[in-house]
Amino acid sequence: MKRRKQCLAWALCAGLLAGQGVPALAASYPAEGYAVVQAEYKGKELDFYEEDRLVLRFADTKEVIPTSYYEGGGRVYALVPEEDKDRPVEPYLPEWERFADETDAQYSMASPYLASRGIVQGSTGRQVEYSRPVTQAEALAMVMRLLDTPAAQPGQDWYAPYVEQAREMGILSGVLEPNEPATKEQYTVWSVAVMEHLGWLTPAPADQVDTLIEETYSDASAISAQGRQAYAALLYHNLLTIDSIEGGDGDARLSKPQDTVTREIAMEYLWILARRVPAYPTELAEQYGFAEQMPVIDGSTSTLPITESIYSALFTNGTQHPQYPNGHSKTQASYERLIRGEADCLVVSVPPSQIVLEMAEQAGVELEVTPIGYDAMVFFTNSENPVSNLTTEQIRQIYEENAYQDWSQLGGGQAALVPFCRNESSGSQALMRQFILGDAPVDPAIRQETIAVAMADILTDVAAVPQEQAGAYGLGYSVYYYFLGSSQILVGEDALKLLSINGVAPSAESFRDGSYPLAGNVYVVLRADAAQDGPGRRMRELLLSPAGQQIVQNSGYEPLEQPKQN
Q1: How far is the C-alpha of 199 from the C-alpha of 147, rounded, in Å?
Q2: Which one-letter DSSP state was computed for residue 32?
Q3: How many helices (H) and strands (E) does the chain have?
């Protein structure tokens, strides 16, 4: 394999090009009938290629466990049948003997990874035969070896046990033509079925299957009903499909489901999935009991990075955990879910509003609100605007009284002032009431003309003002760390600038010393009747610990206390 393709595949495998995650499904990890085992590697320092070969094996029989996974840090994981969970396991670094026909130009990490686990074994004379189409028997065997299928009995075809087990599990239906080339669709269906069996992958929701397929492939009608389910599972989880490994087709992406698959592509595809899918618990997850039970976390749009960082810290490939959310329900909606008992804890940018408190009281629910870090409300305008500071009183007059129509009235040049506001149920609007407006409403003219429902919208709306209205600049507000993390992506590095408030610029330092007037906290919120040893309380305990404060900092927020440097 070309080195360029190898590097791209590794970047994808490492999650550098991963998507935004997936909503929670009714699934468990690991699947019923399986258990996670682990052991600590204490041998020599490993290089990049050795890390990929490191496996677990049963200490009694020296049998390698094909689901072995090494993320780094010395811990090696594997998924084993429930009846084997108490068997002693040990790390093992097999020597790598390159396949006889594998050249330097072809060499990839896929072959040693799969060979070290017994998933790829080569043909007579240890030939890997990269360019040959993979046969149906070979393709099925490669994915079934993740389940550690027993070897063939005397007199059986070598592939017979894989066929028998696949039929028993419902993975294989119809006729297998063992020596005929496997199609992309066959290989996709079989590999997805095995990974769903292990609990590594959950199906796409039925009502999203057709949309995922139709919006991705211009030849969607060529994919069978069974194939659509498998392709949709990969697309839904932001995972690679075989066609994306082979290379794109420009704007018209083609699945070509009946095309054959070379052994090279078959190996590369399976290697990437095996590295990208398993969500094994880290030591931190085990310490707080999250290997067995994760809380349902919801919150503000702006605090989603904290939830994402929580999963990254607690699980390898945290985005593939069955409960990983693809978004928060927004501030008020998440409070409503907590009150109804649909969430275990919230990570939010504002404490409960009066409306939320009244709703909780009516439901007989008391809320516990605990700060876990710092955030702040910020105001921003177009970078070309010469105004760099506003007072809190000027901001109140702008939004409550619609008192200024031109930036010249605020110390700037002659330019129309276009203020944007957020919807009432947003966290940003809750901050506006907390710091600026109190119970006073936003002026009706501003609410009718320039309301932004989504956090991203207010950034893009303000950035677009000079193009849409010559001689005008916008004004908007958000939370500090969301602005830092999103403005450059959404509108470019130089489109918007933050304003000082009362002469103080927003910064981590001004939040900590109290000089910035619109500084606040991010919070974890629980129901007071939450179980003392329940997942919600354990999550709060984690977020207040040094490890949790590092999670807060990794999310782009300012922790309550600076984590100590090692």
Answers
A1: 12
A2: T
A3: 22, 17
